[in-house]
Amino acid sequence: MKWESVNPAPGVYDWTAADALIANAEANGQVVRGHTLLWHNQLPTWLTEGNYSAEELRAILENHVKTVVSHFAGDIYQWDAVNEIFDDNGVLRETIFSQAYEELGLPGEQYIADVFRWAHEADPEALLFYNDYNLEFTGAKSNAAYDFVQDLLAAGVPIQGVGFQGHLDTQYGFPDLQNNLQRFADLGLEVSLTEVDIRTFVTQKKNGEYTNTPADPAEAAEQIDWWARTLEACLAVEACNSYTVWGVSDANSWIPGWFTGQGAGLLYDEHNNPKPQYNALREVLRNAV
After folding, report:
1. One of 109, 195, 219, 222 is an active-site residue; which one?
2. Is the overall model pTM greater than 0.85, yes or no?
3. Is 208 part of any domain?
4. Are 125 and 17 contained in the same domain?
5. Phi and psi (nearest 5°) for 200?
6. Mean pLDDT to the nearest integer, 26-30
7. Which of 84, 136, 190, 222 is catalytic?
């Protein structure tokens, strides 16, 4: 549902893959999380390379949000309305839209509030989330996000939740996840874990090819424990209403292509067999009943 996928050319929308996903979910009694209405990555080249004025860019953004949300109205439980708006230092990212708003004499960050307003107008029943990574740790980024979300709420922006992506790495230690989920929930928001995977360093073959076998058995055990702890943290916070894994098996994970030498981040191995992590989550859910 990213912009480049559903809107590959000006005025041209391709709903085929997204509609098939929704049909599959409905056939299996599942709800769907929409990802994402706006992200600074994976925008179509016609948009990023087009010679549009500031007024045109704002109009394009409004039309895109309303068109997409209207098409899926009634089928989406939660939308990641805006995705990854802060850098790791807690600074709002500069985008083609923040630049356009500034050219119009408006605050650069106002486009974010507008996306929420336009999405809510198109489907008042969908829950609208701001979604980002590294919110799990208390620090510059999560603190900046916390302050910004309060500003949105004070301005009457229809934001209903915050998504914690949950891309964790054993080398950095387990975050104070429950506390961060709770402090955003205490603002009256729903919270979710939206893109969970837990990566670690993996072994390498003699030919240089990386495997999906953790290099350190202790960190392999840590991965299993962390999967359980992420779900336990969500279950411990009443407002944490969904838990989404970012992929199915290590055979087609995004991790090795992005983090050299790391992998083994998902619940199924490269042969699509469930790993101990999978059973750890099942045990957490059994104990929560």
Report:
1. 195
2. yes
3. yes
4. yes
5. -155, 170
6. 97
7. 84
How far apart (Å, rounded) are the C-alpha atoms in residues 37 and 128?
Answer: 10
24/135 Cα distance (integer angstroms): 31
- Other C-beta atoms closer than 10 Å to the C-beta of 276 total 12
Q: What is the CATH number of the domain that holds 28?
A: 3.20.20.80
200 plus 136 within the same structural domain: no
Catalytic status, residue 195: yes
Tokens of 22: 């929704």
Parallel, antiparallel, or unpaired for β 78-83 and 127-132? parallel
pLDDT at 289: 80
Host domain of residue 286 = 196-243+250-289
CA 214 – CA 265 distance, rounded (Å): 10
Residues 3 and 103 in one domain: yes
Structurally, the chain folds into a number of domains equal to 2
The percentage of residues in the chain with a pLDDT greater than 90, rounded to a whole number, is 99
Contact indicator for 116, 156 with CB cutoff of 8 Å: no
Distances (CA, A) of 58 to 36, 121, 124, 235, 240: 18, 16, 22, 39, 33
Q: What is the Cα 8 distance to its own chain's centre?
A: 21
pLDDT at 59 over 90: yes
Please tell me the number of Cα atoms within 13 Å of 41 on its side-chain side.
5
Please check whether residue 213 is in contact with residue 263, taking contact to mean a CB–CB distance below 8 angstroms: no
Residue 170 lies in a domain: no
Is 109 tagged catalytic? no
